[in-house]
Amino acid sequence: MIRGTWSLNEPLVPANISAIMVKMGQEKGITQDSLLENTAIDPAAFSDPKALLTYQQVIILTNNMLKLCDEPTLGLELGNAININQFGMLGYAILSCANLRQALNLGLKYHVLIDPAFNFEVADQGDITSIRLTSHIPIENIYNLLCDIFLTNFISLGRFLTGLNIMPHAININRPEPEFSELYQSFFPGCPVNWDQPRTEILISTELLDAPTTLADESTAKMAESQCADILTRMGPREGIVVKVRRILLSNPGQFPPIEIVASHLATSTRTLSRSLQEVSTSYQKILDEVRKEMAIEYLKSSSLPIEEIAALIGYNDPSNFRKAFKRWTGNPPSYYRGTRKTSS
């Protein structure tokens, strides 16, 4: 295993999060045995607050749920169903924070205790703050589910913590608009939901981050955070291999290094890096294409740069090759993302 990364077969994910999925599946008429098929999960784990699952088990469980429950808003429902109690010690720490900003910063610091494949970042844009999902297990159906959970869970937790009827300024989703997009809008009344965006993100009023929480307790917050820090120290520094590769690629945009150079940055061999990426159903080329796609859509939406310059900025000397690649990535020509299809902010 590459130093500082986690493996799909390490027990790292609290079982009580997956328990919500199993419970919801049963409420929808799916048997527990069907949901747990091929997972090797002992049902007793769901009542053990200390039980941990491997991400491989979570992936199989999630695929079973998606196969047996053909509902397009499943992830949004799950996000609403997951409450602060499922977050263990991190939940206690967040619950005791003075305001949403402090709670958000705590989540940024210790989210790996809940889900090592879930990374997000916060970008201050003046009056608006963006909370962005930045990395994932690169398996499309699971990634889409994770994005949807992220969207509704952040909002529902914000409401629970503050008692306020929190609603974002806008929601951006980085996949094409589906036929059932009106179902998504019903979860966010009065909030624009924008598709075909460079990233999945929640845009909220920056002022809202100073909203006080209803159960703030400084001493409890310090105690709980200290325990979170102890747990994280025992775990050691862990990141997904996809996150590490993306970070290297984004460190010098437009001059993307070959896989051999990326492997050397990670103090490993090209063969080991390729194998590690294959284990999570991706490759160096897929990650590179995803980074280029995100950058290209961002340039198309937020600038008036000509296509030739955008192509060069993401490493294409020939604009025609860029156009072909862009159509392969998104199913649309670059012109589709210009004009009225700008990112809301």
Keywords:
345 residues; alpha+beta; Arc Repressor Mutant, subunit A; 3 domains; five-stranded mixed beta sheet; disordered C terminus
Topology, element by element:
Layout: E1 11-14, H1 15-27, H2 32-35, E2 52-54, H3 55-68, H4 74-81, H5 88-95, H6 100-110, E3 119-125, E4 128-135, H7 140-162, E5 170-172, H8 181-185, E6 193-194, E7 200-205, H9 218-235, H10 241-250, H11 259-265, H12 270-279, H13 284-302, H14 307-313, H15 319-330
Parallel strand pairs: 5-6
Antiparallel strand pairs: 1-2, 3-4, 4-7, 5-7
Helix pairs in contact: 1-3, 4-7, 5-6, 5-9, 10-13
Radius of gyration equals 21 Å
Kindly estimate the percentage of residues that lie in beta strands according to DSSP.
Answer: 5-15%
The computed structural class is alpha+beta
Count of spatially separate domains:
3
Order of helical and strand elements? EHHEHHHHEEHEHEEHHHHHHH
- How many strand elements? 7
Helix percent band: 40-55%
Major sheet, described briefly? 5 strands, mixed
Global shape:
globular
Low-pLDDT residue spans: 341-345
Give, in spatial order, the strands making up the sheet with the most strands: 3-4-7-5-6
Explained architecture:
This protein is of the alpha+beta class and 345 residues long. The chain has three domains: 1-69, no CATH class; 71-235, no CATH class; 241-337, Homeodomain-like (Arc Repressor Mutant, subunit A). It is 49% helix and 10% strand. It has helices spanning 15-27, 32-35, 55-68, 74-81, 88-95, 100-110, 140-162, 181-185, 218-235, 241-250, 259-265, 270-279, 284-302, 307-313, 319-330; strands at 11-14, 52-54, 119-125, 128-135, 170-172, 193-194, 200-205. The protein has a five-stranded mixed β-sheet with strand order 3-4-7-5-6. A hairpin with a 2-residue loop joins strand 3 and strand 4. Helix 1 runs parallel beside helix 3 (55-68), helix 5 (88-95) packs antiparallel against helix 6 and helix 5 runs antiparallel to helix 9. The longest helix is centred in the middle third of the chain and has 23 residues, at 140-162. The radius of gyration is 21 Å and the shape is globular.
